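Support request, please re-run this one:
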Amino acid sequence: MRFGFHLPIRYGVAKVPALARKLGCKTVQLFSRSPRMWRPTMQSEEALAAMREGLCALGVAPVALHTIYLVNLASPDKKLWEMSLDALAEELRRAPLFGAQFVVTHLGSAGGDSLAAGLKRAARAVRRALDCCDAHVRLLLENSAGSGNIVGARFAELAEVFALADDPRLGLCFDTAHAFASGYNVASATGLRETLAEIDREIGLARLLLVHLNDSKAPLGSRIDRHAHIGQGEIGPTGLGRIVCHPRLRRLPFIMETPIDHPGDDLRNMRRLRAIVRRMEGRAR
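Re-run finished. Output below.
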């Protein structure tokens, strides 16, 4: 099983491998820049090469970049939509510099417009961004918690973007906390089975390439995006263990985006996850 975290780069990308080693990561996700700024953060070629070589030496793969928080591909505001398109295209172009195989993005909010119109705008942005990127980089659309008029909370909505954009480089990033908050009861065996069946029916499980393994502070169907420490939220240790040990999921990379309330929280979350897996596998025997 390949577990990892979304890791910070504020101390420099060259330090990412050491942090990945300390936490026992086998996969990582990064921002390539400040997530709250449109302007790209420039990294030296030497630092990027050190990061790529360090992660490769550790066997850390895949590497994913996540788009900045400001991106809104579904926006009815023309200027915001164009800035979001440019930011997405820039992440796709920069991905090889970071040794990243995936770029993960949310679709954003349709604002005061209809869901259908927002999905069409998102699909148009996705198609245009993919036209100017490296052929080997995959763009993964992430399901949302569905607050406000944010699109992509239901897999049928994401499926529409897949169909309209019509590009084989598109894949799915499945966020467990977002799914739970949007009404998919992935904490239960029946709910997980039904959720995966819906993904397979709407998009195809073959296009599910990455899991954001997050527990949820928010209740089922609340549409509130708040992550909890592993096993300490509404999905709980049994629910998360069932997800990572599921035969259709266990070979995928799992990225945790858990909060850091106190120093050492990431390491504690990794240890807690591995303990959960050991218990689940022990029961299976």
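The first helix runs from residue 16 to 23. The two ends are 18 Å apart (CA to CA).
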